[in-house]
Amino acid sequence: MSKKIILLLASILSVGAFAHTIEFGFENEQYDSKYNTSDVFMPYVSGSITPKNSALKLDFKYLYQDQYGKERAEGTNARFKTKRDRFEMFVSGYKYNNGNFTLSPKVGFRYEQWDINDNSSSSQAKRTLGLRFFPDMTYKLSDTTNLYLSGFTGPVFAEVDKKSRLGEVGSETYNSDWYQEVQLLGIRHRLPNKDSVWASIYNEYKYSEDSSEYIRWQLRIGYNWNATSKLAINPFARFDLHYNEEDIKKNSKTYKDTRDKNETRLGTTFNYKIDPTLTFVGEVYWQTAMQEAYNGSSSPDKDRMFYKLGLRKSF
Prior knowledge:
Distance between the termini: 24 Å
Radius of gyration: 22 Å
Largest sheet: 14 strands, antiparallel, barrel
Low-confidence stretches: none
C-alpha cells in the first residue's frame, strides 16, 4: 500500500475528525454428524464511522467463509463452492419525527462472491449483489413501551456459473431476484429495573428467478438483561409459524411443488465492557430445522450450533 493511501486512511480514522469503532471476531456453524459437511468458520472485521458534529453514520463489514466441513466430503458430495467473500456497507443518520412516530431509514448493499469448482457441471452461485433498504420505524406508546418495525427489503442481482438455474450450459445473470427480512410488528417494554422484554412477528421472503420462492412467518421473543454494570445478556427464541417454499423451475419434475422447513432457534447474545472503549461481544444459539424434499420425502432434522466471539474498540 502506498504512503498516500496510508496517510488517507490515517486522516479518515483520525479521532479529531471522526468517532468510530472497529470490531474483529469470528463466527462458526457446526451441524450434527449427518450434515457436518456444512460446517463453516467465518472470521470477520466490521466497524462504523461517524463524522463529528454530524448525524451521518457509515457501517461496514467484511466476512470470509471457509466451509471446512467440505474437507470431509468425497466425490460428488464436494461439488459445490466452499469459500465466500462478503462485503457490506450501509449509510444511516436521517431521522424523521412526528409526535410519537420516528422513521430512521438506512440504505446499503451486500456483495458476495464464491470460489467455483471448475470440475463440476452443477449450477453454482458465482457472485450476488443485494441492495437493501431498511425502513426502520418506532412508535412510542408510553415512556416504557414502543412499537417498532425493523429489517430490510430489496432486489438481488445474481450471476450463476456453469449450468444456469434452467439447466443450460454457460453463465447466466438474473436481475429479478428479491430478498427481505422484516420484523413487521414488534413491541418492546422497559421494566423498572431497566431490563426490557420484546416480541415481534417476523417475515422473510426470497424470490430466486427460475429457481424457488419462499415465504416465512415467525414469532420472535427476547429479554435484555443488564446482569451487571458491565455485563449484558440477551436471551432470545424464534419459532416458525409458517414456512413454505415453492419450486419454480419450469423444467423440473417437481415444478410448482412445495415443501416445509420449519425452524426453531434458542440462544443468547452478550457483551462485556472491559473498559469504557473496549467491549467483548458474542452470541451462541442452537437451531433445529425440518428437512423435506419437494416430492414430500423427509430426512432427519438438521441441527446447528452457532458461536460468535468478537472484540470491539471505540475511538
